[in-house]
Amino acid sequence: MLEYKHAAKLWNGKLVFTRVADHKTAQILRNLGSVRKENAKDLYSNKKCIVLDPQAKKPLTPKDCTSIDALIVGGLLGYEKPQGRTKTLISASSGFHTRHLGSLQLSIDGAVFVIKAICLGLNLKDIEIAKEIEIIHDSIHSTILPFGYPLIDDVPIITPGLVQYLNKK
Ligand SMILES: C[S@@+](CC[C@H](N)C(=O)[O-])C[C@H]1O[C@@H](n2cnc3c(N)ncnc32)[C@H](O)[C@@H]1O
Q1: Which atom of ligand 1 is nearest to the CA of 73?
Q2: In this structure, which residue's CA is closest to atom 4 in ligand 1?
Q3: What are 19-58's pLDDT values in tens digits?
Q4: CATH class belonging to 2-127
């Protein structure tokens, strides 16, 4: 939910959550964007879309953003070692074009942040991305998040509220 919240903020609520069957989940997500029961493949069957898939052959470019109806990001939480689920669950059967955002697995909102930067005109190669981040809890404990985190002036863009959530005892 924190990642979805951040993603919605980055795109000013211009987000569509697809394949939401559960009524309670739909009610919560409606505060962040539009909610649909259909999957993206059916909802956008006549539209030009790009699925952001780590296994895609080409990177997303600013030009891609100008010629499509929707950019599709998987609402999947990644395993430490990516298992290609964006491809098996979304892109392989969608018929849509695919693009990648570099070799590192990003969080959902991290991917949405990088997409926004590219759609604003930056090239992927000019976006700095840290290999992982470490959240220090106290002098003994820390949590390593083994995902790519975009950097702005050397500061990682971390999901708002995530550090507090991980620090909860
Ligand atoms: C946490 S990632 C899950 C990736 C999933 N574990 C896999 O192996 O495909 C959530 C979503 O962010 C997007 N994403 C994350 N990193 C990406 C990358 N390097 N290139 C393209 N899309 C990425 C994808 O749409 C993906 O479904």
Answers
A1: 25
A2: 78
A3: 999 999 999 999 999 999 999 999 999 999 999 999 999 9
A4: alpha beta
